[in-house]
C-alpha cells in the first residue's frame, strides 16, 4: 500500500488540526473543515489505511486518530524539502534584544527568555566552547589554609570561578605575587596558550611547580568544560501548560531532566555544527521525552565558535512557525554577540 497524494493531503490535514486543538481527529472533522471534495466514508477508509501504514494511531476505540512519530517526521521532512524552513518569521525581533547587555551569559539568558515568550515552549541553550577567547584578568583569593578561590575574567565579560586546593605552606603574600604575575603573563592570551605561558613561569617559580600545573588544568577546565556544560533555560514552566504533561509522573520526569541537565547538554552539543535540527519523540534518545520534540539552531560568536539554542515541547507543535522563529532568534543572537 502506497502513500499517494490523497492520503498525504488527508494526513497533513489531520496533523494541522491536531497541532491546533490537541483533540483526536475524526473523518467528519476533515470532511467538514478541509473541503477536499471527499465523503466522510472515503476519508474514514483512507484514515484506516494511514493507520495500517503506521502514520496514525487511535488512542481509544471510540476516538478519532492522532498522528504518530512517523507522521510528524514525514510532515517535517516535507517542509524541509519544500524549502519553507530556510526563511525566518515575519516578526521584527530587534526590539526584543537589549543591545546594552554585555556579558555572554546574560546575552544567552536573555535570548532564552525571548524565545520562550515567542513560542510558549521551554527554551534551552549552551555556550560555545571557545578556546580562542582571551583572558583579561586573574585573581587568586585565599579562603582557608589549603583552599583558594580562582577567579578568571575574560575579555568577552565572562567570569569563571572555582575553589582550588593550595599547598598549606603558601602565604597570602606568595599567592598575591603569583596572582599578579599570572595576570601580567596571561592577559590577552587565549586558553590554548595557558600551558605554554605557565611552563615558562615554572622556571621562575620552581618551588611552586605543582601548584602552577594544577592551576593550568583548573583554568582550562573552567573555560573548556564547566561553562560549556551549563544549560541556560527560559520559560521552564511553559511546557506544563500543555495537556500532554498534565500527569504527575510525566511532569516529574520532565522536571528531573531540566534539573539534572546532563542529558540535554550532551544532546545540544551533538547539534552544534548543524544549522537546525528537529528530533521528534524517541528520536531524541532520552528516556522520558518520548512525547517531546526538541528543535535546535546554532548561533556563532565573532571568533566563529558555535553555540546551540533550542526549544522543547510536545510533538504536536507548529514546526514551520517554531523553526522560523528559532532561525530569527539565532540570527539576532549572533548579531548581538558581534555588536558586543
Physical arrangement of strands within the biggest beta sheet: 7-3-10-9-8
Give the overall form: elongated
CATH topology of the largest domain: Beta-Lactamase
**What radius of gyration results from the CA coordinates?**
26 Å
- Report the top-level CATH class of the largest domain: Alpha Beta
**Fraction of residues in helix:** 40-55%
Distance between the termini: 57 Å
Q: Tally of extended strands?
A: 10
Q: What's the average pLDDT?
A: 84
Major beta sheet, specifics? 5 strands, antiparallel
- Tally of distinct domains: 3
Concise structural overview:
The protein is an alpha+beta fold. The chain has helices at residues 5-21, 27-33, 40-52, 69-82, 104-119, 172-186, 194-204, 209-226, 248-260, 262-270, 319-339; strands at residues 56-57, 66-67, 122-126, 135-144, 147-154, 159-165, 231-234, 276-280, 292-300, 306-314.
Describe the structure.
The chain has helices at residues 5-21, 27-33, 40-52, 69-82, 104-119, 172-186, 194-204, 209-226, 248-260, 262-270, 319-339, and strands at residues 56-57, 66-67, 122-126, 135-144, 147-154, 159-165, 231-234, 276-280, 292-300, 306-314. By secondary structure, the chain is α+β, with helices and mostly antiparallel strands. The protein has three domains: 5-67, Winged helix-like DNA-binding domain superfamily/Winged helix DNA-binding domain (Arc Repressor Mutant, subunit A); 87-128 and 230-339, Beta-Lactamase, CATH 3.30.450; 135-226, Heat-inducible transcription repressor hrca homolog, domain 3 (Enolase-like, domain 1), CATH 3.30.390. The strands form three sheets. Strands 7-3-10-9-8 form a five-stranded antiparallel beta sheet. A three-stranded antiparallel beta sheet has the order 4-5-6. Strand 9 (292-300) and strand 10 form a beta hairpin. The longest helix has 21 residues, at 319-339. The radius of gyration is 26 Å and the shape is elongated. The model has no long low-confidence stretch (mean pLDDT 84).
